[in-house]
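Researcher: We are triaging several targets before committing to wet-lab work. For this one, the compound of interest is zinc ion. I'm pasting the protein sequence and the ligand SMILES. What I need is the predicted three-dimensional arrangement of the protein with the ligand bound, expressed as structure tokens, so it can go straight into our comparison scripts without reformatting.
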Amino acid sequence: MKNTDKKPKNWTIARNKQCALCGSDKVQTRHETKFFNYGTLEKQTELHAEVPVYKCTECNFMYTDHEGDRLCHDAICKFLQVFTPNEVRTLRKSAGLTIKEFSKTTGIGQASISRWENGTLIQNKAMDFYLRLLRVLNNLQAIRNRIDNTNKPVVNITDKIPNFEPVPIARLHYQSIDWLQSEQKTFAPQKIKTVGGHKIMTPKEVRQIRLNLNQTIREFSKITGIGAASLCRWEQGSHIQNRAMDNYLFLLSLPNNFKFLVNTYKETSLTNQKNERLSE
Ligand SMILES: [Zn+2]
């Protein structure tokens, strides 16, 4: 039977648990709803999680532990609609990879992976979508194959825009996205860049992937979580995407992956709207 009343449940004996204060093993536990604020001062949201609370019957000390912290962190990840630490770990482990191997294949830094798995840092939207794509069957293998076929072009360039003289990079930093997007003034020389033996796509390839998907920079940015300014700069060649984002773009060039993201985006914006309505 479902327990629907709001009264706290009864205390039960916590096995193999010692009081965090006096060390006694006469500890009881129950689940309580913990409410906490998340966000900046300007925009705070109240979140909650069901956490185990412990009470020592010897010294009356009451406390929560790392399990409670973990459950609160999970509540934040669910609110942000990103993978929880456990989901990141499960993704890596189900691929049978150590953090080092997972990093080597995906291009994501080892430190970032362990921080996401430990819950000391939450991945941004673009990285989270990249992880979601890696959970889709065959995508991890596609990235492995890409490493083996490093000289094979990712897309055929059909975009007829010629190479223009590069604009000094210092000037590019101050231009608006509309300016960057409006005219292809600044394609840098299309040199093939490699990072640690891995080929990174040229600005034209990045641009071609987006054009093949019929997206403007703003639309593409919204769906993929990649900042519009970053996209512009990668396409203009004033900045070079790192290997993780390069692989992410590569996956988006494969059939169905972008569609998968569009559906994920639709789902998350629907629940966002619902949450906003509820909190009004
Ligand atoms: Zn105690």
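Researcher: Any quick observations?
Model: Residues 156 and 205 are 8 Å apart (CA to CA).
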